[in-house]
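Appendix B. Chain record.
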Amino acid sequence: MAGNVTSHGGATALSNVEDVAKIAKEEQVDLGLTREQRAVREAFAALFGKQATPQRVRRAELTGFDQLLWRHYAEIGALGIGVPSDCGGADGGLLELALVAEEAGGRLAPIPVAETAAAARLLGRLREKELLGPVLTGSVIVSLATRPGPVSQQMLVDGAIADAVLALDGESVVYVTRPDGLPKTARRNLGGLPLAPWYHPGATTVLAEGSEARTAFDAAVDEVRVLRAAALVGLASAAVGIGSRYALVREAFGQPIGMYQAVAHPFADAVTALDGAQLLVYKACWAMDSAQDDAAALAAMAFAFAAETSYHATTHSLHVHGGYGFMEEYDIQLYYRRAKAWAAAFADPRRELLTVADRLFGPVTTGGR
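Structure tokens predicted for this chain:
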């Protein structure tokens, strides 16, 4: 039945309920996967399922890198998925990259995914075809320094393995090569990451300057937010699977511990939260690829929520194992450690909530202005 609809804020009244329904229909976004996107997911699930086994993950913990897996990753065309076709890539979007990151996270793949994908897309935006060539073949690893400022003042998430990094120094996007003679040694960390500083960077080339350069770089950092969120969703989903399967075979008082509410209900909460985290990642991908006004806010939301959700999910899965969960022989500890480290290597998830607030409501001002 038709009727007038007026907002409480005094906005112009909509003519009738049919108008409301029409507007709602026009604003619907289909975040379902296409057949091609499902094929991408399946292809990389198969790759990581075969090449990123728990044994391989353990062997790569000190370096944070599996050279053989990286070679297969490059051969399957992963490094060019999000790069424009006129730059040698596959012309894919951020969602396709997020699907790859999610599958990599589910298997704890010991290769760089988020920063290298964002760096390749940034080189594509800047039309740096000559630099992109070896990146797409995997012969040169280019990462992203995600904090503004000189490379020498940052701990680089791929610093132990990267051949070059892209950074924002002042108002310039720069391409910084690996220092000569710098050993490819990762700093010890609980997340099996190839962390390392470059205190004395190599040659530096300015690729772009000005506000447009900053905008392009900021977009690349937001892509890292989304891709790290996707990897954390994959990681947490796998951890919930490990924990719930263990709860079905571990018995206490004559029945599987999964029958007890204190075990089962947090798993149900985790599954629900992970569905929301995945949906938020997909929406952030759509918003960024279609240049929506709230894209930057959604990217920060996706990272903050995925980081929190993955930590709680892996924590419960680990504690369901009892004391076994803390032993290196059990795979769940691999997931638990990375749930915290993968997020913290980029940013403190709680502080990211301030980024969300700034992007939604504007930065905090002082002096009553």
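Further analysis of this model is presented in Appendix C.
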